[in-house]
Every structure is written in C-alpha cells, then in structure tokens.
Amino acid sequence: MKLPIMYNKSSPKKRREAREEYIKIQEGKCSFCNELLIHDPSNEVLSKPIDLRLFPKGMFNHPVHLHHDHKTDLTIGAVHARCNAYLWQYKGE
Predict the structure, then answer these.
(1) Along the 93 residues of the chain, how does pLDDT read in single tens digits?
(2) What gap in Å lies between CA 19 and CA 29, rounded to an integer?
(3) What number of other Cβ atoms are within 10 A of residue 65's Cβ?
(4) What is the pTM of this model?
(5) Separation CA 54–CA 57 (nearest Å)
C-alpha cells in the first residue's frame, strides 16, 4: 500500500489497511510516543489529563488510531488512542 493516504477521502477499510501498514513500518511502535502499541503510551502522555468532552463518544473503544494532519488530510502514522487525544488537545494536531 502506498502511504500516506487522504484520511477523509478513504473508506474505513482503506483506513484500516493503512493503519496496519503503518504498524508494520513502525515496528509496532506508536509514531508519537515511540512505545509499543500493545502497551500503554509514554509517561509524558499519561501524565496529562484528557478532557473527554472534546472527543466523540466511543473514541477510546479502539486502542490504535490512524493519525492524520488536519490541514493536508494526509495520514502520519499509527498512534495509541490516548496519544491521538493528547495530540489534539495539547498540540493542536
């Protein structure tokens, strides 16, 4: 699969395939905190409170998310759900 993809123009199936490809490329690590995606995010991420009101219901039902740039719509990598929330809330991504 050719990466990156346009996030909002891609079907859920294509997003899943991209997420799986990023996981392979990233050797199972989060593209933001660099911890294994099967483990908790870094202490830096866990130490910051997340305002759940900022995010859609069910956002944390899926532990690994496909992070994308909201300006270009291009995907960046696979991240922990918590890292995705952290990136939005604290970094504006």
Answers:
(1) 899 999 999 999 999 999 999 999 999 999 999 999 999 999 999 999 999 999 999 999 999 999 999 999 999 999 999 999 999 999 999
(2) 12
(3) 22
(4) 0.93
(5) 9
Write a three-state SS string for the chain: CCCCCECCCCCHHHHHHHHHHHHHHCCCECCCCCCECCCCCCHHHHCCCCCHHHCCCCHHHCCEEEEECCCCCEEEEEEEHHHHHHHHHHHCC
Place of tokens 């830096």: 44
